[in-house]
Amino acid sequence: MTDRPLKQIHLAAHFPGVNNTTVWSDPAAGSHIEFSSFRHLAQTAERGKFDFFFLAEGLRLRETKGLIHDLDVVGRPESITVLNALAAVTERLGLAATVNATFNEPYELARRFASLDHLSGGRAAWNVVTSSDAFTGENFRRGGYLDRADRYTRAAESVQLAREFWDAGEEPVRHSGPQFEVEGRLSLPRPPQGHPVVIQAGDSDEGREFAAATADVVFSRHSTLADGQAFHADVKRRLAAYGRKPDELKIMPGVTFVLGDTDAEADERAREIRRAQVSPQTAIAFLEQVWGVDLSDHDPDGPLPAVDPDPDSGLVQGRVRHADPVAVAERWRAVAAEKKLTSRELVIELTGRQSFIGAPATVAAEIDRFVQSDAADGFILVPHLTPGGLDEFVDRVVPLLQERGVFRTDYTGPTLRDHLGLPVPGLR
Q1: Given 50, 94, 120, 368, which is the most exposed site by the fewest CB atoms within 10 A?
Q2: Burial degree of 360 (CB within 10 A; 0-12, 13-18, 19+)
Q3: How far is the first Cα of the chain from the last one, in angstroms, to the nearest whole number?
Q4: Where are the domains of the chain?
Q5: Mean residue pLDDT across the chain
């Protein structure tokens, strides 16, 4: 044990979508398009004094065999449009939009996020993502032109150039780089936060370096205490090379949660939720993502496919394609054999996010343990229901974290940088 003060926990709310998190079969599941759903979840997060509300985004719906998987998210409004509307019905909650740096121009990004920051009084955040696949690029004039090796080069320069626009005021921006040649002026004053908060989600070595150089928040996926501690230490260690202090970057894994009156009740409820999230059809879609062959006739309640994967298949479009499908399939077969799992059971086992499961006191204690042990600085919560999936956590877990003295009882400042304890950057 150390004598350092208790770390304060950071919490954010992720509007579920562009994944298989939502349990569509639950009668309480609502729309992912109607504004009332976004408003309810955001206002619940603000009632819980969360740092920010986080929207993912997909520029094209994912396809298998040329068809949209009807148990996936079908349709999603543009993120900044939704957040501009939410700025009018919230007062303190940060508003984080995922916007692709590959298919947007830095001036456009700088102007849109400056607008959101002004309209919200300093609550905007940009989750910077990249794309190198031609499938997504078909929706754009440039197509899939960008080599995978260039995606972080373009993203880093996009953020750099956006910050130049935010800092410039009435002065012209003159920028010459490998991706952009720009000379112009932003049409708005400097944003209230100086720079809107930058979030990043890459876990590769280049992604970690990009985060250390550029990001204010990292959206990570590490699921165990040891893995979280290793990631936390590695990324924080890299900050010094860029003249940054450890507390200038917050690491916030995306997690799910399931509550019950007892730990046993929560465990049973969690099993039911995972089976609802991974239907037989969804399990087959995940198998086809690895195998790259049509598995329509495969029994999801039987063993894994006996055939070898097709590494060059174009069967699945828009989902992450594993670099070595043959190696992934062999690893999956080993896990299935060791644990005696069917195809569907294996997908359930391998595709779940890190979860906090238990009675409210158990979940509060585990969240606190991860943060005090430097496995994270906080968490981005992904509920399995929209729009009411966060209500129970705010009502039953947040008060326990507040009693522990590790989570705010009220906001202490108006901006997202205030909530995250981040400095306002000086003019460059």
Answers
A1: 368
A2: buried
A3: 41
A4: 10-260+359-420, 265-351
A5: 91
Measuring CA to CA, which residue among 375, 422, 125, 415 is closest to residue 244? Answer: 422
Residues 46 and 92 sit within 8 Å (Cβ to Cβ)? yes
pLDDT in tens, 256-266: 999 999 999 99
> Is it the case that residue 336 has pLDDT exceeding 80?
yes
Question: What is the dotted CATH code of the domain comprising 10-260+359-420?
Answer: 3.20.20.30
Q: Which segments of 166-261 are extended strands (E)?
A: 173-176, 181-184, 197-200, 217-218, 250-251, 254-259
Place of tokens 């997202």: 416
For residue 35, what are its two tokens? 């504004």
Alpha carbons within 13 angstroms on the beta-carbon side of residue 426 total 1
**Neighbouring-strand partners of residue 358:** 259
Q: What's the pLDDT score for residue 58?
A: 79
Residues contributing to the annotated binding site for FMN? 98, 152, 204
Task: Using DSSP bridges, classify how beta strands 124-129 and 94-100 pair: parallel, antiparallel or unpaired.
Answer: parallel
Which position has the higher pLDDT, 169 or 284? 284
Q: Residues forming the annotated binding site?
A: 98, 152, 204
pLDDT of residue 1: 45
pLDDT confidence of residue 369: 98
Q: What is the C-alpha to C-alpha distance for residues 380 and 14, in angstroms, rounded to an integer? A: 6
From the list 186, 15, 10, the residue with the least C-alpha distance to 96 is 15
Q: Is the pLDDT of residue 170 over 90?
A: no
The pLDDT of residue 50 is 98
The pLDDT confidence band at residue 74, using thresholds 50, 70 and 90, is: low
Q: Which residue type sits at 420?
A: L
* pLDDT at 324 > cutoff 90: no
DSSP code at position 10:
E
Four-CA torsion 163, 167, 173, 177, nearest 10 degrees: -30
Q: Given the structure tokens 């901006």, which residue do they identify?
A: 415
